[in-house]
Amino acid sequence: MSIIRPARESDRAALYSICLETGDSGEDATPLYADPLLLGHVYAGPYLSHAPDFAFVLEDDQGVGGYVIGTPDSHAFEDTLEREWWPGLRAQYSDPARIPSDQRTRDERITALLYHPPRTPDALLTDYPAHLHIDLLPRVQGGGNGRRLMVTLLDALRDAGVPGVHLGVGDRNTRAQGFYRHLGFQELSRAPGSVTFGMTLGRP
After folding, report:
1. pTM assigned to the model
2. Residue 11 maps to which CATH number?
């Protein structure tokens, strides 16, 4: 039996762990990174700290096994992180800018995002200003858990008056792509290594 509830600060370690254990296009990325916190610093922690009203976890008898996190206004969120999230991490990690991008380790490629976080393309903002991330450990995959998590966040975004939401997924993660399409997301664009999907959030 599993429940979905709002995420809280005490879930931070679980979110970081799940982020790492699903960080290789849905597979366990633990062997790939020397620093086990790096992926969480970029893809999980900021949302728990700066968009807690749009962070939900799925919990079973073994603890937190999945989460969905997002923000209703991507550019405002990015501005907040530039002021309040990235500076603390930049004090802990050195900028790998002097290392050619094709020679960087996986850790260095993620560390570069602390200094040069990507901005949401302006073309997405009018129709799809929100964005989200969802990750589930294998033990809670299936059985409708992913859909339940997504519906919880999509309803929260809809209630906040958000017109649409987008997300990115690795181009190798065909299982996730099928999941998003089944939920009603439409493919918006492709870039090397990633696919962007979007969904409008009209009232039911």
Report:
1. 0.94
2. 3.40.630.30
